[in-house]
Each structure stands twice: as C-alpha cells, then as structure tokens.
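TODO from last week: model Cytochrome b561 bacterial/Ni-hydrogenase domain-containing protein.
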Amino acid sequence: MLRNTSTGYGRIAIAFHWTMAVLIIGMLGLGLYMHQLPPTEQATFELYQLHKSIGFVVLTLAVLRLVWRLLNPSPKLPDNMHPLEKVGAHLGHVGLYALLFALPLTGWFMVSASPWGIPTILFNTWPVPHLPVPGLLGSQEQAETFFKLLHEYGAYLLIALIAVHVAAALKHHFIARDATLKRMISTAPAKADS
Ligand code: HEM
Ligand code: HEM
C-alpha cells in the first residue's frame, strides 16, 4: 500500500522517513567532521562540496515529503498515550520537519553570504546560484556569521530532537509495547485497516 491510512504509514512515507533519516544522520556526522579539517586542503574542499550537494538532495526530498504528507491522512497516535505525550509527539514531528528545511536553507544562505564567493556545484555537475542576502544583516562577513550560527545551533537542536525522537520510538516498542515503531517499518498494521 502506497498511501497512509488513519492507522498506519504507507510505503512512500516509510521510504521517505528512512532515506532521510540515513541522509540526515550522515550529514550531521559529515558536517561535524569536515568542520575540524584544515580549511585549505583540497580534500576538505571536496567534502564541503559533497556536504552541500547532499544538503540539496535533503531539501528536495523535504519538499516532496511535505507535499506527500499534506496529501495523505496522518496515522492516529496510540490511544494509550497521555494527551500531553501526544502534544509532545506532534511538536517533536513539527520541529523535525522544520529543521529538515532550516538546515539546508541556512547552509545555502551561509555560502551565499560568504565574501569568498565559493561556487556550489552539485555533485561536480550542476551549479547552484547564490541566494540574495538581506542587507539589514550588515556586511557579508556579518551575514555569513549569522547564518553560520543558525546552521550550527540548528544542527545541535536537530541532534537533541533526534535523540528524544529515537528514545521515544524505543520506549513505545520495548516499554509500552505498541505498534508505533513497527508501523514506521512495515505497512502490515496499516493493511489491517483497509
Ligand atoms: C540536511 C542538511 C544539512 C545538515 C544536517 C548540515 C549539518 C551541518 C553540521 C552539523 C555542520 C558543522 C557545524 C559546526 O560544527 O559548525 C555543518 C557545517 C557546514 N554546512 Fe551544513 N548541513 C546541511 C546542509 C547544508 C547545505 C545545503 C549547505 C550549503 C549549501 C551547507 C553548508 C555548510 C558549510 C559551508 C558548513 C561549514 C561551516 C563552517 O565552516 O563553520 N550545509 N553542516
Ligand atoms: C534512526 C532512528 C529513528 C527512529 C527509530 C525513528 C522512528 C520513528 C517512528 C516510529 C515514527 C512514527 C511515529 C508515529 O507513528 O507517530 C517516526 C516519525 C517521524 N520521524 Fe523518525 N525515526 C528515526 C529517525 C528520524 C530522523 C533522523 C528524522 C529526521 C530528522 C526523523 C523524522 C521523523 C518525522 C518528521 C516523523 C513524522 C512523520 C509523519 O508523521 O509524517 N526520524 N520516526
């Protein structure tokens, strides 16, 4: 089943979730790793280009995923969850979705503002234009620093949200013993609804 139902995720939502989970966790690791390499090395430059290229793949997938989510029903959270837990789960998901956009966009603004003017060539093939940077942020250096801070602290916030998200998924599976994790792995529970 491709589409979500009111009780389970469909194959498309599951494929988006796990493809993006792998990409995001890889990008967080790559970002933190490349940041502490010597900036003038050719290998560092290539890792930055790879980071930017995968970042644009994430941005594209985030747009497609959001459209798919809006076109589909959202599976209901388990009945045994406390109302406050449900609010927390929704806020957590909204936060994750927001950061799936915010990280690539702040990265894009950062490289656009940089006085170095380094081009972004996706996978060494497709050039990406720089974004117009609002003048009210001051000089190019100041604007670059602003977006760098947003990108860095956005990444730390994303790491914290993912840690809580994974802990919640494991708690559902091993302590509450409900179908929350299973329905993000297989469409089987959703089939029961059709
Ligand atoms: C899923 C998307 C992304 C994630 C999760 C991500 C994550 C990160 C992380 C964790 C860092 C290290 C931060 C630090 O230690 O200061 C970083 C650095 C960086 N990112 Fe991203 N990033 C993403 C997308 C992008 C995109 C689309 C671009 C540019 C088009 C970009 C450009 C950069 C640059 C230039 C740095 C180095 C900043 C510096 O030198 O301080 N990132 N990113
Ligand atoms: C790697 C370990 C991960 C596990 C075990 C996991 C588990 C889950 C589970 C079980 C759900 C379904 C919750 C429900 O049915 O209400 C879910 C939803 C979601 N996850 Fe994850 N997740 C992981 C990583 C990630 C990452 C890295 C991200 C993105 C940064 C992410 C973003 C989301 C979002 C946005 C939803 C809501 C989907 C929707 O309703 O449209 N997850 N995750």
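Done. The pocket of protoporphyrin IX containing FE (ligand 1) is lined by residues 24, 27-28, 31-32, 35, 48, 51-52, 55-56, 58, 103-104, 107-108, 110-111, 120, 148, 151-152, 155 (CB under 6 Å).
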